[in-house]
Amino acid sequence: MNQSVLIQAIIYLASGVLFVPIAKRLGLGSVLGYLLAGVAIGPAVLGLVGDEGQDIMHFAEFGVIIMLFLVGLELEPERLWKLRVPVLGLGGLQVLLTALLTGGLALVAGLPWQPALALGMILSMSSTAIVLQTLNEKGLMQTAAGQNTFAVLLFQDIAVIPILAIMPLLATYPVAESTDHHAHFSLTDGLPGWLRPFVVVGAVLGLVLIGRYVMGTVFRIIARTGLREVFIATALLMVASIAVLMEMVGLSPALGAFVAGVVLANSEYKHELESDIDPFKGLLLGLFFISVGAAINFDLIRENPLLVIGLVVGIMAVKGLVLGLLGKVFGLQTDQNLLFALGLCQVGEFAFVLFSFASQNGILAQEVVDLMTAVVAISMGVTPLVFLANEKLLLPRLGTKEKASKEQDHIEEHNAVIVAGFGRYGNIVGRFLRANNIGATVLDFDSDRVDTLRKLGMKVYYGDASRYDLLKSAGADKARLMIIALDSPEKVLELVETAKKHFPNLKLLVRAADREDAYELLDAGITHVYRETLDSSLRMGVDAMTLLGFRAYQSQRAARLFRKHDEQNMAELAAVRHDRKQYFSSARQRIRDLEELLSSDTNDRWLKDVEDGWDPESLRNEVRQMKP
Amino acid sequence: MASVLILFAHPALEKSRTNRILMGACQSVASVTSVTINDLYQEYPDFDIDVDREQQLLLDHEYIILHHPFYWYSSPAMVKQWEDLVLEHGWAYGREGNALVGKKIFNVITTGGPQRAYDEAGLNRFTVRQFLAPFDQTAHLCKMIYLPPFVVHGTHRLTEEEMHQYARQYKSLLTLLTTDQLDVEDARNRQYLNELLVD
């Protein structure tokens, strides 16, 4: 048993590892790679996986749920509110018009009105998984097309709920005796009808309240243990629990996860959650795409090639036309509209769920369901090709390149500055920048401090700043500077290494605890090194000189001279210090130099010059030599 | 090809529309010709002028431009600090001070007042040239040739288009210098260098 699970895993992983890089190389995108991998191991080609493909798809749908959670996490409530017009208007009209039109065509094709309507509603769904993944991969999420696409997909997710509610009313066949293998415990089954809406609303409300007021504390406690895997486990546990809870009250688990994501979007653990869960999303989505590929029933295509192909093309054309028309009405530019309409014209994974629901409830005949399942799978399979054709064939002809035109009111969390470590040092830098209206994304690994700062209304995120994924989600690829003020010198060096490797454009300003620390940083190639005690001790020295009766300007210039000298000397010593002996002799030499420099103003040309300009000595001499 | 050094001094460039536009013009010229821009407030925010560096820059260039706003009928403090420290006795002036002999120097200034205000009968009672006498004499003592200033008048009321027109003039002035087309003797007799420039 164990072994067969492992062998299964090997088959899926190997196919993905083999096909995805090839597809990526060929410019086809990872989604198509996974789908091809699925086709290859599926019954049509190698036959390595068979019926269990359906179960795996069901399991892998958890990837879609995680994806929606992550999407929610990216979407703060204020931004969601701004999307209300596209979600309700564009999304609502798309589902309504597509359902009526495809349903109408089914009616013309000879289906009774009930199954026709059910079919129409099912076919109005698009594939959240494929479309969002593809848009993310191509970096098009922030374009007008991307935002509207997302709005439509969001509405479709919401629409699943009323669709599931209406469907049983459309039953025309006798209901099969509980054929549902995935029958799960339901909270609402035993309740009288009028009570159900309350349970549903209660569950969502509970979700929001728990997310808002309890999860922060839970994550904080877990974070304090410092065990990353437990944090990841907690995050996955939360998403899984939400999914189950939502299913129990008859809501879409993906929608529930999305809501939870939105609730946590303002939380300090946002970036940490994102980077921790993201790999799971990727793997499960990959698995999901593979199982879609494996589920494509090539026998059915072979028997009825014209019918299947005709249906795929027809449905995608109808959906695409409705979308294109709506895109036009909602003011999308032609290039954006093409991306929007062609991107969403497939039928999505929700259809699989709805089809099985429809056949169990006696709404659609099994033949219709089998045929349509194949059609849906093919339409999903060709989606990456449609994207590709749009990108390579249609858009170049249009003349306008799809550019990432940022939505004007879209709030970007990408600041020019990242402050890593907000302790006694970093907080001063951060406050100073803030006072000058320079936005900074703050990362800190002390959960108590993060908590306090958040209460003060600051945007601070919890996490280990030396990790690549966290830096990435904090926007390190778009930021210009990073202030590194972590307490642990080892962590600082680790972070410097990561940043230099992955984000070479990021300028690094690094705080060093002492000289020894500064040498390490100079060795690591950092040019902006700040010893934390240097400036304040020099300021104290200036005050001391002034109190002793030196002119204030003179003391201050002396201090600046001292600092300049000291930094030059440090850079030189950093280069030679590996040779211990040389270090000592050289250091002694330097100290002697410095003493000389400060005691007489003849040693350093820089100091001498300054004195010269203000020193009338040489002029006096010349004048005295002249005859009166 | 003559080389030009622009000593630019503005303590709050972020607040000066005119000077931002003028500097933009300089930068576009500097990127392709022998014009060097030395942004003094950017280089020495703490007023600790690197005398060696400044003297070397002077030696390396034929024309020296002091580009600054006309604060209190003179320059911002940095220019004064620069003169005090860089133009050393025995180097720039005095019996042995011959480092700058024959170099040409002039001011590029921006001022809020219109030209008619700088007149015996006007609000400011003296002409710009009269106010610039200390620069004139400093150049003279350093055995340099002092040229008339290039002046942008009435900056408070300039429209965007007028500023760009001044910027174009400034650019063509720099081109005149770098391509050795400036008739120094003719220029010396003018009130402003602006007169030599059309557009």
From TrEMBL, chain A:
The chain crosses the membrane at residues 6-24, 31-50, 56-75, 87-110, 116-136, 148-173, 193-214, 226-245, 281-300, 306-326, 338-359, 371-389. This is Kef-type potassium/proton antiporter (CPA2 family). It is a multi-pass membrane protein. Keywords: Antiport, Cell inner membrane, Cell membrane, Ion transport, Membrane, Potassium, Potassium transport, Transmembrane, Transmembrane helix, Transport. Residues 414-530 form the RCK N-terminal domain. InterPro entries: Cation/H_exchanger_TM, K/H_exchanger, Na+/solute_symporter_sf, NAD(P)-bd_dom_sf, RCK_N. Belongs to the monovalent cation:proton antiporter 2 (CPA2) transporter (TC 2.A.37) family. One of its GO terms (biological process) is potassium ion transport. GO terms for molecular function: antiporter activity; monoatomic cation transmembrane transporter activity. It comes from the Bacteria. The keyword Hydrolase does not apply. One of its GO terms (cellular component) is plasma membrane. PROSITE patterns: RCK_N. It comes from Larkinella arboricola.
Automatic annotation (TrEMBL), chain B:
GO terms for molecular function: electron transfer activity; FMN binding; NAD(P)H dehydrogenase (quinone) activity. This is Kef-type potassium/proton antiporter accessory protein (CPA2 family). Residues 3-172 form the Flavodoxin-like fold domain. InterPro entries: Flavodoxin_fold, Flavoprotein-like_sf, KefG/KefF. Keywords: Oxidoreductase. It comes from the Bacteria. It holds the Pfam family Flavodoxin_2.
